[in-house]
Amino acid sequence: MATHESHKKRSGLMDWLTTVDHKKIGILYLLAGGFFFLIGGLEAVLMRIQLMEPDSKIFTGELYNQLLTMHGTTMIFLAAMPIIFGFMNAIVPLQLGARDVAFPYVNAVGFWLFFFGGVLLNLSWFLGGAPEAGWTAYAPLSTVAEDTGVDFYVLGLQIAGAGTLAGGINFLVTIINMRAPGMTFMRMPLFTWASFVTSGLILFAFPALTVGFFLLMFERVFDANFFNPDMGGNILIWEHIFWIFGHPEVYILILPAFGIISEVISTFSNKRLFGYSAMVFATVLIGFLGFMVWVHHMFTVGLGPVANSIFAVATMAIAIPTGVKIFNWIFTMWGGQIRFSTAMLFAVGFVPTFVMGGVTGVMLSVPAADYQYHDSYFVVAHFHYVIVGGLILGLFSGLYYWYPRMFNRVLNETLGKWNFWLFFIGFHLTFFPQHWLGLMGMPRRVYTYMSGQDLDGANFVSTIGAILMGAGTIVLLINIIISASSKYATTKDPWDGRTLEWAMPVPTPEYNFAQTPLVRGLDALYVEKTAGNGDMTPAEPVGEIHMPNGSILPFILSLGMFISGFGFIYSNWYVAGAGLGLVLITMFLRSIIDDHGYHIHKEEVEADIKGGRA
Question: So what's the pLDDT on residue 1?
């Protein structure tokens, strides 16, 4: 397409390195997050192989601790979060009827910071050893470790976290300011609502983690004593800082999955979501209460019965809005014309699985009982029922549902169902026995156990389940490769969707909507379908469209942070200064470059509409 002369059309690798298009950045997030998901999954399978039999000596001691730390850190920060941001980037502006996110340049900075932070952390495997202080990096384990592993942890996550914070702010502004005419807050799709609340949680939770990482970095690099009791510090400061971030983080992860499940169940039940208003208020309430429960991770540290009781009640209270969601999903399916696509299978499998995770969460919310469950495999089982049985099943559902919108292809449904059953059965085989292991006294974070303790059988079954989950993931990869064939090209609305993202042609134009749509109700596209309209009613005449130019500066800025990270890790202040200098130069260049983007002329837009490309 010909465009204004200020726009230089790029192709190939350079196009992806310089893009500020939210749809392409969404794909980059999905690919990078998927890559880290495979790494984290491999680390999990290696741990389960070590625990398959008693007294095993395959991955022991230090190496097992490194696998444990990197598995948790990678899955939470480098796999789950970016895949969520991938869906948010690809879908939220389309659901809003927007041209792009509010700050396209900042959006690109956010992705590249996350990517380089993740690469920096994983390079620790090859540069002296990965961190081994656990994914929570509790002091004093993280402060007394003399190798560089924890330094890679702190700097890598600090850089990646800055990208996440930038992304959260971006989506808050986008959702508040860039909704199409008629798209009131109470007409927004549930996924957009979940993304909105998630972005608010990121805004308030991630600064706490950022402060904690600064304190830990100063403790390790400059010999500060924030967490050293011998010098007047307090190791509990780290636990408070980490979990003030860490428990909202659980909802940062699970709320977008709730949004995905709401979209998928509504679409494949061919019904409006039951109790839409209640679902919205439940989402907001979960986000609010998420900041009031962090101490339930610390019931055994000695804060006393008053503090424990207050946080126990808050923890139990958060089950109420969650229960509202569960019942509303069931009532949405009740009486609906259900189509069991792969996306719907994952959504239906999500509901009882997440309920099981919630039930054990309520058990853990009782301080007296938590003294028995604490640091046992019961906690491992609960956590994974929420994060894997909840979040990951939700992300798989979203992948099969929105894959046509993102990649202009559909995934093979037969392979998709194999993916579901292998992963779903493998998941329950892996983590359900771990409840019993915990109740029988098996501690978490240990690399071996003795025979004759009745732990052998459940650990063996758990490892077989993990291998099945890996097999299911391999089937998904095969499906993705096969889908590249033109045989699997998609139509613009393959699922008979209800929301705005299904109103555009395939492939989606760079400017999304040729004319901003007029939203006339909840499930905006379904409203137009029932009115007999083939397309959305436009809210504006055809006109010139302004778009932002791509830029290599976000990549260079993030590269500068990556370089400075090495300088801080190895106390080489020349390298650290060079990296920070590159960051400052990039920011200066951004401030002086007169970049007003480019324009797509009215005639070109009209030609796209006439040719069915918009």
Answer: 37
Q: Which residues contact 124 (CB under 8 A, 6 or more apart)?
A: 130, 131, 148, 149, 152, 153, 156
- H helix runs in 59-148, sequence order: 61-73, 81-96, 104-122, 141-144
The alpha carbon torsion through 288, 290, 295, 299 (nearest 10 deg) reads 120
Q: Are 73 and 121 in contact (CB under 8 A)?
A: yes
Rounded to whole angstroms, the Cα distance separating 81 from 409 reads: 24
Residues in the chain: 614
DSSP strands (E only) in 262-349: none
Residue pLDDT, tens place only, 335-357: 999 999 999 999 999 999 999 99
CA-based nearest residue to 119, from 208, 35, 53:
35
Measured CA angle at 425 (ends 424, 428), to 5 deg: 90
pLDDT at 5: 40
Residue 6 has pLDDT above 50, yes or no: no
Q: d(Cα 14, Cα 361) in Å, to the nearest integer?
A: 47
Whole-angstrom Cα distance, residue 585 to residue 3? 30
Structure confidence at residue 2 as a pLDDT band (50, 70, 90) = very low
Residue 8 has pLDDT above 60, yes or no: no
Alpha helices, DSSP H only, in 183-304? 190-221, 235-268, 276-289
Q: Angle 81-96/22-50 helices, nearest 10 degrees?
A: 150
Burial of 84 by CB count in 10 Å (0-12 exposed, 13-18 middle, 19+ buried)?
A: buried
Is 80 exceeded by the pLDDT of residue 4?
no
Residue with tokens 């500060």: 224
pLDDT over 60 (residue 139): yes
- CA count, 13 A, side-chain hemisphere, 143: 25
